Every structure is written in structure tokens, then in C-alpha cells.
Amino acid sequence: MDMSNILNLTKILLEGLGTTLSIFILTLVIGIPAGIVVAIAKNSKCKIIAWITKIYILIIRGTPMMLQIIFVYFAPYYLFHISYDRFVAVIIAFVINYAAYFAEIFRSGMLSVPKGQKEAAFTLGMTKTQTFFRISLPQIIKRILPALSNEVISLIKTTSLAQIIGITEIFALAQKQASFQFSIVPLCVAGVIYLVLCAVITFAFHKAEKKLDYYTIT
User: What's the chain's Rg over C-alpha atoms?
Assistant: First the structure.
């Protein structure tokens, strides 16, 4: 296969880039705040809330993402005869899944901040909100960035699972082209596209870690 064919193939696969990025961005925009809420719920003093949250995280982390997407899309129809948009189902499934993983990352960051720092801030007259945003949050972000970057990189690759319920994204197009051309080249091109996306994300997190280097972790 010559370079012109590879460029043409790349153009075809990039038609699915919008869908891939939409799943990626929406999952982050909704999933990260949801993860914070779940992390707070798991640390709740209310045993019922904490117990329910633990069960939710256990189920999500203990079952395949593929199964979760299928369940979210088909279960409402078989149980309540309700059908809805496939893309919406994918977003819901991804948010439910990644909120659980983000929650564990955020919870570990919250628990890593020494209580003495909060007490010292209160002694200086700072409110709980001021203490959280000025003292705790910068340290939490610094501590969770490596783990968070791993999950975000994993997310961009996991978007390929959206094809399970008929969503056309990069990998779905690559598989169609591979079957049509009887070649693995389309899959290799798709791999390069994912690699570039992961490289960009890695670079962004590296820059973020550099900016937070002035926070010393002890």
C-alpha cells in the first residue's frame, strides 16, 4: 500500500475522530465531578450511603466495561420497554464506569492531606472553603495527577468499545476498512492515531505536573 492510499485511509478514519473525542470529553466533563461526589459519599459518616457507594464501586470495577455498555443500552428496553439513543447510552455507561475509578483516585488524594494542615488553617482563621481550595486542593491535584493521567489515557483507548452497540468511531471504521481491504494496515493506522492522542494527553499532564512542582510532597 503506497503513501497516497495510507493518507486516504487516514482521512477516512479521522471521520470517526469527532465521535471518539466527544465520548472522551463528555466522560471527563461529567465523570470527574461525579467521581468527586462518589469519593465524598464513600467517606460519608452515614453508613448506608458509604455502603451503597462501596457496592457500586465493587460492581463497576468487578465487571467488564463491554458488559456495562450492553446493560445500560439494552436493560431499559427489556425491563421497561424503553429505548433511547445509542450515543447517550454510551456516555451514561462511560460516566458510570469512570466515575467509580475517578472516585478512588480522588479519595486517595483527599486522605493523603495531613489533618494537621487543616487544623493549622482553621487556627489562622481560614474557613473550610478557603482551606479546601487554598491548602488541600492543590496538594490533592499534585498527588493524584499520575494516577489520573493513567485513567485518562485509558479512557481515550476504551472509547473503541462504543462500537459494541453500533457507534461509529475510529476503531469501528478501521475494522470495516480492514475487512474491505483484507489488510491489517487500517488497524495499524488506527493504532497510530490512538498513539498520537495518548502522546498529546501525556504531554498535557506532564506540563501540569511541572506547574505543580512547587508543592513539596512529604
Answer: 21
